[in-house]
Amino acid sequence: MITRKRVIRYYLVIIGIFVIAVIILGGNKKINIVTSNVHNVKSVLSTRIVKPEINTVSTKIVTNVRDIKIYGLQKQIQFIGTLTGYGPDCPGCGGHVACWPNPDVRNGNIYYTDKEFGKIRILAADYSIPCGSIIHIKNFKFVPDKEVIGIVLDRGSAIVGLTMDLLYPSEADTVIIGRQRNIEFNILRWGWKQTVK
């Protein structure tokens, strides 16, 4: 004969197994779970861990400037292009970048402090990519697995299409980068205000 205590124990074991499974299969955020026994008395208090919401980004791989303009605001863009370097003392350079807030970069200041992304490198890009855009640059050839986050704050007559120009303290320092092809660029923010989601 099944007794009432056995039934209660059976339900508590089932509830305990359920709670353990929830904890194991969960993630990072804590949520309290309260369960009741067969007499509707709160009997088990446990903590469940839930994974935080992950913002999945759909990336559009593009191969030309026209597609950059079309998809720039809609989704994260990825493209393969060329990376070069320049200094504020390059021929035709005036020492200030072309985009607002037009910092003076003649003092060796190759970084910009962005409210959202922090201290990042200054880049020159094609006019199809708006000023203030944040670019994640991957797979430099001279430093394996090197990655840089940069902000488009400059333009240049030779910087057209799928080419980016990374600012260095002087033109002499750009020897280290040369002209690198097959570099992966990801646009993380389109212009000053639009973070790509």
Distinctive features:
mainly beta; two-stranded antiparallel ribbon; six-stranded mixed β-barrel; 2 domains; 2 helices; Barwin-like endoglucanases; 197 residues; elongated; single chain
Task: Write structural notes for this entry.
- By secondary structure, the chain is mainly β.
- It folds into 2 domains: 4-50, no CATH class; 59-195, Barwin-like endoglucanases.
- It has 2 helices and 11 strands, in the order H-E-E-E-H-E-E-E-E-E-E-E-E.
- The protein has helices at residues 4-25, 65-71, and strands spanning 29-36, 42-50, 59-61, 76-86, 111-114, 118-125, 134-138, 148-154, 163-167, 180-190, 194-195.
- Strands 4-9-6-8-7-10 form a 6-stranded mixed beta barrel. A two-stranded antiparallel sheet has the order 1-2.
- A hairpin with a 3-residue loop joins strand 5 and strand 6 (118-125).
- The termini are far apart.
Mind telling me the CATH superfamily name of the largest domain?
RlpA-like domain
**Helix share, percent:** 10-25%
Instruction: Report how far apart the termini are.
Output: 61 Å
Low-confidence stretches: 43-56
Largest sheet: 6 strands, mixed, barrel
| CATH architectural name of the largest domain | Beta Barrel
What's the number of domains?
2
Strand order of the largest sheet: 4-9-6-8-7-10
Radius of gyration: 27 Å
CATH class of the largest domain: Mainly Beta
How much β-strand is present in the residues? 35-45%
Globally, the shape reads: elongated
Separate helix tally: 2
**The CATH topology of the largest domain, please?**
Barwin-like endoglucanases
Instruction: Please state the structural category.
Output: mainly beta
Tell me the number of strands.
Answer: 11
Order of helices and strands: HEEEHEEEEEEEE
